[in-house]
């Protein structure tokens, strides 16, 4: 039985500094005395309804709602091994996206991350290294957009090199694939 939740979401506050400086947050360590963020958040004044879509997954699609839900059981057993994830799981994700999205000629995985809702200090991580595929990233606790249109163009140009111009003549999408580790039924 679906169960909607009412929660107060966190939103970034529009600051005058953004007229000349883009909003940013740095989650890894950097040398020097730099600010790690110029973003301030506020909690929404009223709770908002997060709808439980269990049992209605078929009604949602990437072109109509910006997301799609489907079931998949991975062959990966050891989620702590970067090689196993890259050798087994990434090819699975590529096949899933090609099979479940419309008009897909090619899938390129450029930035995969494990996520856990466990504070870094609890597992002895002192410094986040985004190049270390064994480390996980905490889920965001605020409403956000993962990729701006300009960032998508930059990613394609960076990762696809000489092919970028040709690819950008067609439809290019950045898809965030999330793996749920719970049985939600």
Account of the protein in words:
With 185 residues, the protein is α+β, with helices and mostly antiparallel strands. Helices cover 21% and strands 9% of the residues. The chain has helices spanning 62-65, 82-100, 149-160, 164-167; strands at 5-7, 10-12, 41-43, 48-50, 114-115, 136-137. The radius of gyration is 19 Å and the shape is globular.
Protein topology:
Blueprint lengths: L4 E3 L2 E3 L28 E3 L4 E3 L11 H4 L16 H19 L13 E2 L20 E2 L11 H12 L3 H4 L18
Parallel strand pairs: 5-6
Antiparallel strand pairs: 1-4, 2-3
Distance between the termini: 9 Å
Structural class by SSE content = alpha+beta
Low-confidence stretches: none
Q: Note the total helix count.
A: 4
Morphology call: globular
Strand line-up in the sheet with most strands: 1-4
Describe the main β-sheet briefly.
2 strands, antiparallel
Q: What fraction, in percent, of the residue positions are helical? A: 10-25%
Gist?
The protein has helices at 62-65, 82-100, 149-160, 164-167; strands at residues 5-7, 10-12, 41-43, 48-50, 114-115, 136-137. The mean pLDDT is 86. The strands form three sheets. It has a two-stranded antiparallel sheet with strand order 1-4.
Provide tags for this entry.
two-stranded antiparallel ribbon, alpha+beta, 185 residues
């Amino acid at each position: 039985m679906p169960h909607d939740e009412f929660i107060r979401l966190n939103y970034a506050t529009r600051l005058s500094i953004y007229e000349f400086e883009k909003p940013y947050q740095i989650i890894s360590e950097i040398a020097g005395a730099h600010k790690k963020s110029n973003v301030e958040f506020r909690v929404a004044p009223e709770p908002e309804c997060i709808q439980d879509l269990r049992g209605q997954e078929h009604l949602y699609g990437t072109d109509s709602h910006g997301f799609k839900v489907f079931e998949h059981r991975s062959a990966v057993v050891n989620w702590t091994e970067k090689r196993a994830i890259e050798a087994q799981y990434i090819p699975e994700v590529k096949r899933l996206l090609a099979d479940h999205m419309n008009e897909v000629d090619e899938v390129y995985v450029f930035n995969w991350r494990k996520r856990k809702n466990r504070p870094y200090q609890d597992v002895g991580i002192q410094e986040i290294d985004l190049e270390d595929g064994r480390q996980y990233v905490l889920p965001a606790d605020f409403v956000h957009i993962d990729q701006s249109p300009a960032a998508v163009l930059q990613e394609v140009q960076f990762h696809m090199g000489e092919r970028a111009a040709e690819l950008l003549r067609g439809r290019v999408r950045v898809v965030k694939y999330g793996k749920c580790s719970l049985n939600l039924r």
